[in-house]
Amino acid sequence: MGRDVCEASAAARAVYESADAVLGFPLSRLCFEGPEEELRRTEIQQPALLATSIALLRALEEQAKPEPAFLLGHSLGEYSALVAAGALALEDGLALVHARGRFMQEAVAPGKGAMAAVLGIDAEAVSEACRQAAAETGGVVSPANLNAPEQTVIAGDSPSVERAAALAKLAGAKRCVALPVSAPFHCALMRPAAEKLAAELTRVRFGTPRVPVISNVEAEAIRDPARMPALLEQQVTAPVRFVDCVRKLVTLGVTRVLEVGPGSVLSGLVARIDRSVVRGQVGNLAQLREAASSL
Predict the structure, then answer these.
(1) Could you confirm whether 75 is annotated as catalytic?
(2) What predicted TM-score, i.e. pTM, was given to this entire model?
């Protein structure tokens, strides 16, 4: 990911060079060449996604002048949004997400946690299935990503996630899909990771963003840099309220969104939340050139 843009853009290359220097290993080579199993390790994947998203943005800025009214990211993407807003230096963001990924991986032993996407019922029904499952198993399971009106990801210990998925199917879910993740993100099992990340966040200086950033935790526009460390700490264990975030954008008058980063998952989710919002993507060089011509 990002290779074609890096080859075409000096600004994108500078981002990857900075990432390699900050992290002390060749992140750029892993992004461009793999191997995929290494890239999928969350302590590698998180800085890789941040670096690629910002590289794409910087390359876009070489050709056009995007002027967003608001910025929004999904989970890890909130760090990309903060960097894009000028509230967080790229180098600090890379160091934070590298540590965040490591802390998340260390919080739960391999194979002990799980995540699953529940499709076809609303978030309240999924929450009830989680509550019932946790009561039955004595374990942890809760909504982790509220992605679309009828797409909610759950996370927790493996037996509790399995039981919640079974209960969700009984409640009318069309499908429950186990996700190939390395840890159960955005649930109470991530508390040790949140505590470790809090210490790292105290060492970073946050600035006032050029435009407001929509918080995953509150689904509100944030401009106060003093609040950002606590919100990023909470985000590790709290659900990502993406549905509420997108609806907040709409109430604030947003009619068009541009997804900057590898893939188009978020654009697809926006379509499920509000089809009136015009969607675009910048995930590769061809899409970048198309977006630049329309800005």
Answers:
(1) yes
(2) 0.96
